[in-house]
Please model this.
Amino acid sequence: MTAALLLSACTSTTPSPEPETDAELGAYLEQSLDWGTCEDTATNGVDAELFDNPALECSSIEVPIDYDEPDGNQAQIALLRIPATGESEGSVLINPGGPGGAGTSFVASTSPLWQESPVSERFDIVGFDPRGIGGSTPALDCYTDEEYDTGNGLRFGVVNDINSAEQATEFAERCIDGSGSVENLVNAGSMNIVRDMDLMREVLGDEKLTFLGYSYGSEIGAMYTERYPENVRAVVLDGAVSPEMTPTQLRAAQFANFQDRFDDLAALCAQSSDCVLGVDPTAVNERLHEIVEPLVDSPARSTDGREVNIWDVYNGISSGLYSEATWPTIISALSELDRGNPDDMLALRDVWYGRTEDGTYTIDLDTQTIVRCMDWPRLTREERTAAAREHGQIAPMYDIEALTRGQYYDECGSWPAPPTREQPWLEGTTDLPDTLVVSVTGDPATPHEGGIELADALGGSLLTVEGKQHGAYLVGGSECVDRVVDTYLLHLETPPAGSRCSL
Model:
């Protein structure tokens, strides 16, 4: 789950359209949901096991692919719910982040936690797969699972590995082909996801929205609150993203936090005299480079025959840094890699992609890039290259000289349409329903200052959580956090100013 809770930020100059009226959306608002069993809705083996649970129910709703053409082509949004154990007072709609996270899988995987939660006594717990993701159709895609397995997909280190306009054009063409049409691709941005959420609220029969969003989910939850304030009951934003940072600033802050967490990991490792990173805290980055640089020219070979390159190793390390509990696993994997065995590091890399044993990728990072191409402003070659090198200086654990071939190019540089989200993506209107932002002080992916800034922009409440992981409510094991959020979701009571918990 943590690997899905990544990225965020701002963009564009295109004005956002006014909300549709009921008359304009017509039959979409009159849909009725046909809830049934979930086992036939799974798109991979992991979900098939999760969904084979009689406590879960599945359905889908139709939304217009293009809201400017509501009578045109349609998309289907997959839904999964845990019905309230008591008399239902409505739904809690959930997005686990990404972009690219599947809410159906998240709710299914956390169902034991929800079944013990007092929230599920009064509310249906509903996860949704944003358009093109998971069980929603038409699917969005750029590379096959086999291509990612062989290292031929889009590679991400400090930025995406796009080095020319030709590569950017090839990437855009692959995404158009993999997603079925230009129309599907260019309507995947956050503005449309927010409008889909309001349709879901209507079709679920909720007069007002109750929403829980992690990481990127905090963006669409905040955007919904500002766009449809009259339709908001309660909105929880966990692992919150700053509405004030540009994408470049956000990535810089993220990599600074990843470096901080790697330094913490190195200090933990140095408590052992045989630490693979050594016991000198000033030399750990260079030591890491010594371990990974040979993979540039000679990728390692896993026991199942897969090549492991330097990009895989950095994705594996980044994946493990999301939670302090995983740091010993990273240390062990680096030790094995230094001995010539890449299997443990490859397993961490596979968590980043949600890769299953049969080679299915349950977290499709293509969709993350597709959404961001419709959300984020384009950068010039010079801006992208400068940003990559700045991020490499901010986070020297990432060996930028080994990762780069000289120049970077915006992966969205040849996209078939401009971004549809404004910059900044939140106006900062404070006359809004009270929201609750949950922000972890040592979160590596969504820096704590972003939570402070989002709460300020919404005029909402902030719960500060001491810890070093991404996301806190329900998944952090903190009774304090869970109690504060439960109280808000159930009774609309926010915590006093300055409230703090710990993980």
Notes: The chain has 21 helices and eleven strands. Confidence is low (pLDDT under 50) at residues 1-22. The first helix runs from residue 22 to 25. The CA atoms of residues 84 and 123 lie 5 Å apart.
